[in-house]
Amino acid sequence: MGMIKWGRRSRAALSLTTTALLTTTALAALSTGAEAADTLGSAAAGKGRYFGTAVAANYLGEAPYVSTLNTEFTSVTPENEMKWDAVERSRGTFTYGSADQIVNHALGRGMQVRGHTLVWHSQLPSWVSGLGASDLRSAMNNHITQVMQHWKGKIHSWDVVNEAFQDGNSGARRSSPFQDKLGNGFIEEAFRTARAADPAAKLCYNDYNTDGVNAKSNAVYNMVRDFKSRGVPIDCVGFQSHFNSASPVPSDYQANLQRFADLGVDVQITELDIEGSGTSQATSYSNVVRACLAVTRCTGITVWGITDKYSWRASGTPLLFDSNYAKKPAYTAVLTALGGSSDGGGGTPGAACTATYTKSAEWSDRYNGTVTVRAGSAAISTWSVTVTLTPPQKVSTTWNGTPSWDSSGNVMTMRPNGNGSLAAGASTSFGFTVMKNGSSAAPSIGACTAS
Ligand code: 9MR
Q1: What is the pTM assigned to this prediction?
Q2: Catalytic positions, please?
Q3: C-alpha span between 74 and 451 (Å, rounded)
Q4: 231 C-alpha vs ligand 1 centroid, how far in Å?
């Protein structure tokens, strides 16, 4: 943790010159007593489900990434490391190193692994697209067989075929080397080959824009119904669930999951992320979790990344942890929807706080910052706020709070000195001196977390 030596002292009130203002709000979940705080994984397990995340091998050396992963999640999906271009970049040469890193990390900690993905038109090496039909058929079947056998018995569910249907109203298959050269039968063939390669793995079809009832999901539905009626092996359907304002959580999301489940397959939410922030993002996340819990065969939820910092659409801040790994209101909403409790007890239903930053003084070599923490419409018993600096800035002094630091030394989490309780609407403030070391950048203030 702290790599920095701390000096702390009290100061009299500062004269405030407001030159910067940042406000963030966090909602804290219902607290059920003095037991330890739940995690996403433990709360989901209480409902008989896994709670997973996409993981990138690149970040497994980053301490807060790994600690958040290990604490909160019970399933992982390699974000890119099992795709065709990662594991068989040239024909017949298989490279499993990065994916193995993720698989070993997960299995060593009792997490499940989702395999993603075997047959997909994207991230496909050009040697595959260049093959003629009969060569392509054997390359596809060999790829499925080799990759599945490498992790035989270790993968909970495989996305055997990914995104094979077109967007829009046609209900048609997407053009791809597989579709164009092998015809409609390629999906069935891929599933049959997959069943033979690792009979213990659940075999999923995975797609996006199939989250509500629409032409595309109808086409997938008809395919799954046909597979079930003819005994083609399929165990699950993945609903990616990438949402934003142009593509919000559909009102018939639950009904759509249910109609697939009624065909006799499991349903899984496989790549959930929802662009937005604050309460509206939190509400959408909560709706997704509630929908899954209402469908008996919805066996788990995977979010498409841990932190907004590394999201494939980072600018939309679509995940549960902000770029400083602070829990967002969406996190609390998910935990609450899963029936979990977000603190160690003593919290108040609806507890919330805001954190407002001002630069209160400035000199050539340093500036002072003040953060005012204000309780929302309910009393709170404690709070925490993250303050992230721009390196090589360093904090030299703090007052009116107890700081702790992440391993980078750039992210300070401030908690109260002693009793942190605040009446509804009441405020307190803490302060710090930032040595500029060449950068006058304002700190970024993360979500205020209250309980
Ligand atoms: O998140 C993945 C990103 O890092 C890759 O650059 C991208 C390449 O296609 O794939 C992203 O993951 C996709 C997933 O594999 C399939 N569904 C859509 C996901 C988001 O694009």
Answers
A1: 0.73
A2: 163, 271
A3: 25
A4: 31
